[in-house]
TrEMBL record:
Record-linked Gene3D superfamilies: 3.30.530.20
Organism, as annotated: Urochloa decumbens
Gene Ontology terms, MF aspect: phosphatidylinositol transfer activity
Domain Phosphatidylinositol transfer protein N-terminal: 3-247
Matches recorded under InterPro entries: PI_transfer, PI_transfer_N, START-like_dom_sf
PANTHER family reported in the protein's UniProt record: PHOSPHATIDYLINOSITOL TRANSFER PROTEIN, VIBRATOR, ISOFORM B
Coiled-coil residue windows: none
Pfam families tied to this protein: IP_trans (PF02121)
Domain of life: Eukaryota
GO CC, any one term: nucleus
Chief localisation class: nucleus
Protein name: Phosphatidylinositol transfer protein N-terminal domain-containing protein
Subcellular location: Nucleus
Amino acid sequence: MVQIKEFRIVMPMSMEEYEIGLSYTIMKMEQQNTNSKEGVEVLQQVPFEDEKLGKGQFTTKLYHLQSKIPSWMKGFASSSALTVHEDSWCAFPKSRTVIKCPLFSKCSLTIDTVNRPDNGCSENAHNLNSEQLAAREVEIIDIASISRDYWSKMISAPNVDLTAFKSQKTERGPLLKGWMDSCHPVMTTYKLVIMDAPIWGLGERLEDFIIAGERALFLACHRLCFAWIDEWYGMTADQIREMERQTDMLLKKTLQKPGKAGSKHEGKRKTLKDEIAVVGSCT
């Protein structure tokens, strides 16, 4: 059974600030979660152009994070089989991410993102049809909240109390009760997670588990995006691109994996249309 879950994450910042802040946060989190044994490996970062999304950046990453995999899953799979492959087409304010794992080759996980300058009030940001709307479950994530589930512990992100945090550069915060209805500037990232695990006896459990993992990652990443606002506020797009280049080199060096010839800027890559053809029946 295909599960459709839409997460709405309200952020106390403008759309332009969010684009910079999210990129900075992702890079810093990748650095913190990469060592000589496991972490994030960036295989490819190249420009792309698509009729649906427009112009943006295509990225391919491998996540070697076997220590974070639950014991019940490790019991019937090798470490290499649990490596996660991610293709992402980012053309702000929209993006699509496709995540695959060799162990579950029949499963599909896509994340479609739409960012809007509102406080989570758009009822159909992804332009879903009536059948999809009927199957969709919506959850608004409050970044001032804290989760203590399995995935939140595994992500092990720095814990910051956003109900007490105040930015020195922007004077935004603390995020008290009702902040999403009163803060300015404000924007929302609408993340549509579509998970299909057609595995008899395991599919539903796996779908619930993976969607819970995505939720925990969304919460941790966006909590830190605001908590680190004084670090990235005022940065330019050019500075972020240079930081991405430096981070890519650092991750490769830390993982002790030699760069693959032509993997950075050359070679044939999957187009967004190729992936849409694969998962189109789910979306």
